[in-house]
TrEMBL record:
Key words, A-Z: Transducer
Localization per Swiss-Prot or TrEMBL: Membrane
Family membership noted in the UniProt record: Belongs to the methyl-accepting chemotaxis (MCP) protein family.
Main location: membrane
Protein name (record): Methyl-accepting chemotaxis protein
The keyword Ribosomal protein is assigned to this record: no
Methyl-accepting transducer domain residues: 15-144
Record InterPro entries: Chemotax_Me-accpt_rcpt, MCPsignal_dom
A Pfam short name: MCPsignal
Amino acid sequence: MMATLKETISAAKASADYSSQLSSSIAASSEETSTNIDSQSQQLEQLATAMSEMSSTIQDIAGNSERTSSTTEQSKDFAAQGSRSMGYTLTNISGISEDISSTHELMEALKQGVNDISSVVNVIHEVSEQTNLLALNAAIEAARLANKVAASQWLPMRFVIWQVVLKSPLLRYKPLSTS
């Protein structure tokens, strides 16, 4: 009976140690992911700024193109050809400007998504820290119950094991066989 108790305590300690190691690994991964997301967020902000400046420049170019178009129309020799060329150029520049505006909006949405992911990573990090504490608490609780079992020989071993399993939200064991 004592050998089974020792095996159960050993299994509970090993499970708690494994949970602690797994939580530490998750925390390290979360911190690395958070660092990478911060770096990407900064790069996205720089890209969004560059896109805004490009959009402003293209709008200035579009305004200049309109003024050039009105000047070109005054010339009789190239009036028809110049008008068609400028109309085509303005259409393309407006399309590009709209595309850049759409891209800027998408970049803002992407930036928000990165911020949301960063929040999720922070939550995962906090959960992993709490998991470490729960694993430690489970190990302490198992040791405490093992001492109680050793002190009171009349309590059946299976009942004690089920008490440990049912009280700990991290431990999910299959019922022990009666062998």
